[in-house]
Specification:
This protein has about 160 residues and is mostly helical. Helix content is about 65%, strand content about 0%. The longest helix has 24 residues.
Length: about 160
């Protein structure tokens, strides 16, 4: 078994080392939520995107954060526990499934790019404007995942 690293990757968290750049990223995130609200993408759908991408990227900090946020927006523990197999269970709405397919393909673009067929499927549930926000949501959470992984943001025990 390989020996675990004991030296931190960085001398601090990226968000603390580059606060102005981090502020730009958080501003992007807030603008995205505001736009999603304006055009009718449910917060629950955004949190499913955030949760799935964080699972794929292995970002424990973001998984924890978006688990709590998803519950706040009415998501259930059962559905969250099944996000990794969203295509195999009938618990997700077709519009949520296509949003997660889009997010997954964007997250895995290095091995497989989103297809024209996937965009056509998305158009069956969303407007072009909504599809663009779904794409931007996946791009944003991927940036946050990388920031948290590189920073080694800790997951703290929930308060009882």
């Amino acid at each position: 078994m390989p020996e675990q690293e004991t030296t931190p990757r960085l001398a601090g968290y990226l968000d603390k080392l580059q606060p102005e750049l981090y502020a730009t990223l958080t501003h992007y995130s807030q603008q995205l939520v505001d736009e999603a609200d304006r055009i009718g993408i449910p917060r629950r759908t955004l949190e499913l995107i955030n949760y799935l991408c964080s699972q794929i990227n292995g970002c424990a900090f973001c998984l924890d954060l978006h688990h709590r946020r998803a519950l706040k927006y009415g998501e259930t523990e059962q559905r969250l526990s099944l996000v990794a197999v969203y295509r195999e269970v009938p618990l997700f709405e077709p519009s949520e499934v296509v949003a997660m397919k889009m997010a997954e393909q964007i997250t895995r673009m290095s091995s497989s790019r989103p297809s024209a067929e996937l965009f056509a499927e998305a158009r069956g549930h969303y407007s072009e404007e909504q599809i663009s926000v779904i794409c931007m949501a996946a791009i944003g959470i991927n940036a946050f995942n990388r920031l948290s992984i590189l920073s080694e943001h800790p997951v703290r025990a929930a308060k009882k």
